[in-house]
Amino acid sequence: MNQQMNQHIIRNPIISGFYPDPSICRVGEDFYLITSSFELYPGIPIFHSKDLANWEQIGYVMTKDNGFHVGATNYRGGVMAPTIRYHKGIFYAINANFADNGNFIVTATNPRGPWSKPHYLPDVPGIDASLYFDDDDKAYIVGTSMIDSPESGKKERGIYLCEFDIEKMKTIGEPKAIWNSALRNAASPEAPHIYKKDGWYYLLISEGGTEHYHAITIARSRDIFGWYEGNPANPVLTHRQFGYYHPIDNVGHADLVELEDGSWYAVALASRIINGQHKNLGRETYIVPVTWERGWPLFSPESGKVDWTYPAPQSLPWTMYPAEIGFDDFDKDTLEMPWSFWGTPYQDFWSLHDSVLELKLLPRPLVRPLKRVRIGRPPEKVYDDNVSLIGRRQRHTSFTIMAKMNFRPVTEHETAGLIVMQACNHMFRVERTISEGKNVIRFVMVTTEIVGSPHMPDVAETTETVMAVKEYDSDTVVIKIVADKQDHSFYFGPDQDNLTCLYKNADGGLINPETINGMVGTLLGMFASSNETESENSACFDWFSYFGSDD
């Protein structure tokens, strides 16, 4: 009984909010995990844990220090599906940057950094490339591309493997097709990883697309170059059989890790559903235990699905870390870890001084026509197209954000305030501006009808609607946004104790429609814009607070 009472619990998601595509490795007693960051800067957040339950963010893999470039296009481009591996004293992160030159590898001897500048890999095709180091120290890259399938005799989407010279950062020989998918003609076979156990090479992939039909499947071969044999029990983990309104959806994109005691776990992405098929939080990082039976892995063996809790591994030391900062008074000379920019901040538009965060008004508006992400076609780098926006991820189903801002607009083009942004042209804004010659506070909703893939829309029609306007003439304003799941209310006033309701009960589902599929998650933050005009003005934020709840 005492042993049961003392059992620690892993609670899912282990990393909440917009932290998708997890990849994990173990080095001795330490676990390291990285996730996608898409168009947010800094790129590829990295986390550390001792017990698989409690995680601390220790930095970012990609920054301006190692040449990281990402543009603010539609929020869904940039970097996605990274893999982290460790071999002989060196950490490797391999990824594709669709805002730069595609596939690359960076290295570090300390996962906290510094990380090397990217070694670009023009001879590595496709997406979702992963590294594997064999027992003889040979390195391989496994990835997703069009392959010549020996089963169908035609070209189809599938998984390839090639040997890799880790010293020269070049492939050795031609990529070879090794598997396509478990389901015949499965959509989007991707996210491959290779492992070795008991003389077998195991190939773990996802298929079905990263939305509702996402699934994790596995195959094996005695020869690393395959052809791989699928597990008769595939898929080994999915939630698509539970229907569209199960509280955990989109399960997929997994990576395995073995503990020192020989037990196994898998991290994977999934989405929490909020009031219907809405995914404000994007895709988050979850964990499940894995056992092995008759040469195949069994994911979450007690239930066969991702559960909210699991007993923590008793072999690992329970290690808690300080909670992520909720209140920031900007009294340091650097931004705290949770803050992100949309796109690499090349222009001189932000600063920390005198315990305030100052945002200059840049001409770039927050809303403009969406652009397609051109996979495999490096775009021209743009350095003078920044958005004056700093935000942090929504990490709970409900939240309250509040900030104190000092700002006086000069023209009707000048705006500054707080934003709830999901998928670029889907947002709520509370902004201070001038309207019809009067100083006002207004609530604006932006939605976009999309035809085609969410990150590559064929047609996108954006509607920007002013939902509420109230006169307000003071330079100082406190803005508060309260979200009870999809129910959003907006307040403003001269201080925290004297707030007026601007708009109540806005439907957050309107900026989180099913059509955008939750590939990315909601960003909560501060912005300033002169909306395609030149301005010398700026907005100063004395503090910002975030409080979240999953009740």
Describe what you observe in this structure:
The chain has one helix at 2-5, and strands spanning 9-11, 23-27, 30-34, 40-41, 43-49, 56-62, 79-87, 90-97, 102-108, 119-120, 127-133, 139-148, 155-165, 170-179, 190-197, 200-207, 215-221, 229-230, 237-238, 248-258, 264-272, 284-293, 296-299, 309-311, 327-328, 340-342, 350-353, 356-360, 389-393, 398-406, 415-421, 427-435, 438-453, 456-471, 476-484, 487-495, 498-507, 523-529, 538-549. The strands form eight sheets. It has an eight-stranded antiparallel β-sheet with strand order 4-26-29-38-31-32-33-34, with no helix packed on it. Strands 25, 27, 28, 30, 35, 36, 37 and 39 form an eight-stranded antiparallel β-sheet that branches. Strands 15, 16, 17, 18 and 19 form a five-stranded antiparallel β-sheet that branches. The chain is mostly beta strands and 551 residues long. It has one helix and 39 strands. It has two domains: 18-311, 5 Propeller (Tachylectin-2, Chain A), CATH 2.115.10.20; 327-549, Jelly Rolls (Sandwich).
